[in-house]
């Protein structure tokens, strides 16, 4: 049944009721229900004859069922005397009853009715408030009315009646006359007015504040032209509700902020203090600032005007000093003097007058994106990153590692792309210069979050590249291609989909239009499963935010982190502080994404805590650079800026001089740090954290604890790692000498030699296929190895079994179903075997399969070997993990290890025993690796990583060893604590074996007999 047919049935039914001639349907309040139609009735009395009473709701509603069933009335029984139960409306807080007493309470603004006895009745005609729906937060009564009308809370007639007593701002022409324009086709005139000062265009610095009732009676009114809520009223409409004509008030100019007493007093004082010439220079620059701020629909307050003038005066004085050959001098407190610290191409502070995020110092050209929105997105990102990392906004907010990565991604975009898209994104974009100005300026930043969802930051860096849409280039598609290059091929489908969704959102939110539609509206436009589920949660307005947030996945996966960020920005986007706080509960990535989304809409002026960012100037600087680079009038093309730009963002791929540890330092560091971690955890292997604190003190392990009769003693983890490396050297030497080698066979025999050091006679350890009478080679000559240090039962048992049968375990023919950590703990040296990552992974897995038959027991080893390989070659750990994971998922049975890695990457903040315990105990392959990766990612030096890796309940020596292999490869030998190196058992053996490996795998491998005696053929 359609609306027209249902309305006809309702009218017919009403006419048959007592007093039906006084009952009328209010068509503007018709609502579709699942079972039919509801029609609100406007009447002087209820159907049963009782008085409605002023202000009592709900009004009667006639229900017309779709199935043709009985028509009825839906209303509560209103009390006729105060002594009986009465209903009171639960009004949407956005409706200001006190501001508009002449308005009846709109039915659509009533959320429900509550009776004094507690009964609750939902209003099906309720429409959520305009701000909730995404309209701007009103600052004046006129803006409130515009919102109410747009939300259909009030009728046009009610709007006009209430607007009469609201003040508006009418621009004044140079003659002092109000701004009027002809009404086409009528011969009449209309007044142009604005509902708030910030909406008055910059070209009209003079304005007249006047109630609508006192406007010229023969003129119409257009309110807020050029905005999303423009309304035009005819002279007849205004006259119909104005009543008796009042004499219009003669225009009396209201001083603009810059014409107030505060600014008027500051101008001559600053001219005198700073010696500004000509004397009107400051006034002219203030006019420039005000004009451009108003072009972006911002108003500078009198206090901001004075601070901006002081900042410009400082800049003027230092310009004079430079021209005189003198060094500039700046005040200690930049902010109080209207300055903000940009950063020059030498990473030095470059104070400039602050524009408060309201306009660009270089102007505000019309283009696809707005400058203030891009800067707002970057600043909001940094705020959310800091809060998500645990920062207290009552104090200065630190620069988070995720924000540093955003700036690096932006640097890559600026150096690797042309300002005008060509249709194709370069196959690779340049990485950050480790010695460049941006790296130096951000070196105080914290570590980046240890999770794949951190790659979502690439969306914001890539979006401005789509600013210039050419006839043959889709700007949004181009920006998505840029983001894909930034994330890399190993990112995975979840990351790619999430980044593309964010690019679409940012493309819409960064609009130069005065009114930016809110996140939830843009999310609806983008569509997709995640958008649908997010908007469904948002629709439950009264549900607890935190409960809803925590229902979105586990808070670790990319989809969950993104979903939480979108939910916070969509549900609370009208309140940026609430949105960022909510998202930050899920960590820095969710906080940063939500902050960027709301920041893109409101700009820096609408963000909380922006001035608590010590790096605000750097963020403003880089965001401005990316805005101008992809602007049609690119700033970098100007003669005065071109040279500086080239120094700041040198084009082409950057090939850095090696500044980090070299390969020798990384390999030595990996093996030595692995042994240190092993020794740190040797005493407390499998102890609980409470027991560890009993043994080592309340801070847990902070140094070596005596174990196995000494300090710095290692366990089977280090012993077997050394035999792994020896096997690789021997196999490689054999291949050079004979042309072929079975490296897995060499690994098997090396582990049999280790078994011999554990007290098993050689004739029982070597295996029936070996004819070697005595265990040979250089490594086994070191008597320190002949000591049992709690060897793993699985390793020991399977190697003993090989000694009897000569049958080795393989991936295809597993020897057992064990997934213990004995395979991964010894696999780090396999990183050296090849530059083919698939080959490194395969050998890592096959080496572990000799003793461990479960996929998580051997795939963890392959994954670990690839990570170490990448670290030895200077790759960042997060990139190394992404590369290894991409290789991992190609293998059957990877799910457990993949999930463990994802959990580690999603864990937030510095490592604690409790966080490590959430990941596992480290006694099986997948958790030993994931716990070690988490610790290495969330610490900033080898010391803290090694100590964190052993202070937990579980297999502390193995996580210490595996984590040590990682951080040693990251930071190099020089980063290791000297006192630990001095006390470390087998230190000289480890260093000697590492150096021999580099010799064997290097370009000048020895060919003399002495070398082959040291590393004989197996």
TrEMBL record:
User: What is one Pfam family matched by this protein?
Assistant: Imm35
| Cofactor names | Mg(2+)
| Residues bound to Mg(2+) | 715-717, 955, 957-958
Record keywords:
Hydrolase, Magnesium, Metal-binding
GO MF, one annotated term: metal ion binding
Q: Which residues form a coiled coil?
A: none
State how the cofactor is bound: Binds 2 magnesium ions per subunit.
Cite the Gene3D superfamilies for this sequence.
ADP-ribosylation/Crystallin J1
Q: Where is the Immunity protein domain?
A: 4-89
Record's InterPro entries? ADP-ribosylglycohydrolase (IPR050792), Imm35 (IPR029082), Ribosyl_crysJ1 (IPR005502), Ribosyl_crysJ1_sf (IPR036705)
Question: What family name appears in the similarity comment?
Answer: Belongs to the ADP-ribosylglycohydrolase family.
PANTHER family named in the record: ADP-RIBOSYLGLYCOHYDROLASE, ADP-RIBOSYLHYDROLASE ARH3
Q: What is this protein called?
A: ADP-ribosylglycohydrolase
């Amino acid at each position: 049944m359609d609306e027209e047919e249902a309305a006809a049935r309702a009218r017919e039914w009403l006419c048959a009721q007592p007093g039906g001639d006084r009952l009328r349907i209010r068509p503007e309040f018709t609502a579709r229900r699942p079972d039919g139609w509801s029609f609100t009735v406007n009447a002087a009395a209820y159907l049963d004859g009782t008085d409605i009473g002023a202000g009592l709701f709900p009004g009667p509603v006639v229900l017309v069922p779709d199935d043709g069933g009985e028509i009825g009335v839906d209303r509560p029984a209103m009390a006729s005397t105060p002594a009986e139960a009465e209903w009171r409306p639960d009004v949407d807080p956005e409706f200001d009853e006190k501001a508009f007493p002449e308005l009846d309470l709109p039915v659509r603004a009533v959320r429900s009715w509550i009776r004094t006895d507690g009964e609750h009745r939902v209003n099906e005609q309720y429409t959520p408030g305009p701000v909730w729906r995404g309209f701007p937060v009103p600052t004046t009564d006129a803006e409130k009315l515009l919102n109410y009308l747009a939300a259909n809370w009030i009728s046009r007639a009610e709007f006009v009646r209430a607007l009469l007593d609201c003040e508006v701002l009418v621009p004044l022409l140079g003659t002092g006359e109000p701004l009027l324009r002809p009404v086409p086709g009528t011969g009449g005139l209309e007044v142009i007015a604005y509902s708030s000062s910030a909406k008055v265009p910059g070209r009209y610095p003079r304005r007249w504040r006047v109630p609508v009732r006192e406007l010229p009676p023969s003129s119409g009114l257009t309110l807020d032209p050029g905005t999303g809520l423009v309304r035009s009223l005819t002279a007849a409409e205004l006259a119909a509700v104005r009543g008796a004509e009042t004499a219009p008030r003669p225009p009396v100019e209201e001083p603009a902020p810059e014409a107030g007493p505060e600014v008027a007093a500051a101008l001559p004082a600053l001219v005198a203090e700073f010696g500004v010439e000509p004397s009107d220079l400051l006034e002219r620059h203030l006019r420039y600032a005000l004009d451009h701020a108003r072009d972006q629909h911002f108003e500078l307050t009198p206090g901001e005007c004075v601070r901006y003038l002081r900042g410009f005066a400082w800049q003027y004085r230092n310009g004079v000093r430079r021209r005189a050959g003198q060094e500039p001098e700046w005040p200690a407190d930049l902010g109080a003097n209207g300055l903000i610290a940009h950063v020059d191409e030498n990473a030095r502070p470059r104070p400039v007058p602050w524009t408060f995020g309201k306009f660009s110092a270089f102007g505000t050209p019309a283009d696809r994106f707005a400058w203030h929105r891009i800067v707002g997105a970057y600043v909001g990102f940094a705020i959310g990153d800091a809060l998500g990392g645990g920062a207290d906004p009552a104090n200065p907010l630190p620069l988070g590692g995720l924000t540093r990565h955003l700036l690096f991604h932006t640097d890559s975009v600026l150096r690797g792309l042309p300002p005008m898209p060509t249709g194709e994104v370069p196959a690779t974009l340049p990485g950050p210069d480790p010695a460049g100005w941006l790296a130096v300026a951000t070196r105080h930043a914290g570590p980046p979050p240890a999770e794949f969802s951190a790659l979502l930051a690439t969306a914001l860096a890539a979006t401005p590249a789509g600013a210039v849409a050419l006839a043959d280039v889709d700007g949004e598609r181009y920006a998505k291609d840029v983001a894909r290059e930034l994330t890399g091929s190993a990112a995975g489908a979840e990351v790619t989909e999430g980044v593309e969704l964010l690019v679409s959102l940012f493309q819409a939110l960064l609009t130069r239009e005065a009114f930016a539609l809110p996140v939830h509206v843009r999310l609806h436009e983008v569509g997709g499963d995640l958008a649908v589920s997010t908007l469904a949660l948002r629709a439950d307005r009264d549900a607890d935010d935190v409960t809803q947030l925590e229902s979105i996945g586990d808070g670790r996966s990319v989809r969950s982190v993104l979903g939480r960020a979108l939910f916070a920005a969509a549900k609370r986007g009208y309140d940026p502080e609430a949105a960022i706080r909510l998202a930050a509960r899920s960590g820095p990535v969710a906080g940063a994404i939500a902050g960027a989304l709301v920041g893109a809409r409101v700009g820096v002026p609408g963000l909380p805590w922006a001035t608590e960012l010590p790096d605000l100037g750097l963020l403003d600087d880089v965001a401005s650079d990316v805005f101008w680079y992809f602007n049609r009038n690119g700033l970098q093309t100007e003669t005065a800026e071109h040279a500086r730009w080239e120094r700041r963002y040198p084009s082409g791929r950057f090939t850095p001089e090696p500044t980090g540890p070299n390969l020798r330092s990384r390999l030595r560091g990996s093996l030595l740090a692995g042994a240190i971690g092993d020794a740190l955890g040797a005493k407390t292997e499998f102890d609980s954290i409470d027991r560890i604190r009993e043994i080592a003190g309340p801070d847990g392990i902070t140094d070596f604890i005596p174990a196995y009769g000494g300090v710095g003693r290692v366990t089977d983890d280090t012993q077997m790692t050394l035999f792994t490396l020896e096997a690789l050297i021997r196999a490689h030497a054999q291949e050079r000498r004979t042309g072929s080698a079975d490296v897995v066979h060499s690994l098997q025999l090396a582990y049999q030699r280790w078994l011999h050091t554990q007290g098993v006679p050689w004739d029982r350890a070597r295996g029936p296929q070996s004819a070697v009478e005595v265990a040979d080679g250089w490594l086994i000559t070191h008597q320190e190895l002949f000591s049992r240090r709690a060897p793993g039962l699985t390793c020991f048992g399977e190697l003993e079994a090989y000694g009897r049968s000569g049958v080795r375990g393989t991936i295809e023919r597993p020897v057992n179903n064990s997934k213990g950590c004995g395979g991964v703990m010894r696999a780090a040296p396999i990183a050296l075997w090849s530059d083919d990552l698939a080959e490194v992974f395969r050998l890592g897995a096959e080496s572990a399969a000799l003793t461990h038959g479960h996929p998580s027991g051997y795939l963890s080893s392959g994954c670990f070997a690839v990570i170490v390989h990448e670290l030895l070659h200077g790759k960042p750990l997060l990139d190394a993990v992404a590369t290894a994971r991409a290789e991992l998922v190609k293998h059957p049975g990877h799910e457990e290890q993949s999930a463990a890695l994802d959990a580690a990457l999603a864990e937030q903040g510095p490592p604690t025993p409790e966080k490590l315990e959430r990941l596992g105990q480290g006694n099986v392959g997948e958790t030993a690796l994931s716990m070690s990766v988490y610790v290495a990612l969330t610490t900033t030096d080898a010391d803290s990583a090694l100590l964190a890796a052993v202070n937990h309940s579980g297999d502390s020596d193995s996580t210490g060893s595996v984590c040590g292999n990682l951080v040693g490869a990251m930071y190099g030998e020089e980063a290791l604590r000297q006192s630990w190196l001095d006390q470390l058992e087998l230190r000289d053996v480890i260093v000697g074996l590492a150096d021999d490996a580099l010799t064997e795998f290097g370009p000048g491998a020895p060919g003399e007999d002495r070398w082959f005696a040291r590393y004989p053929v197996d």
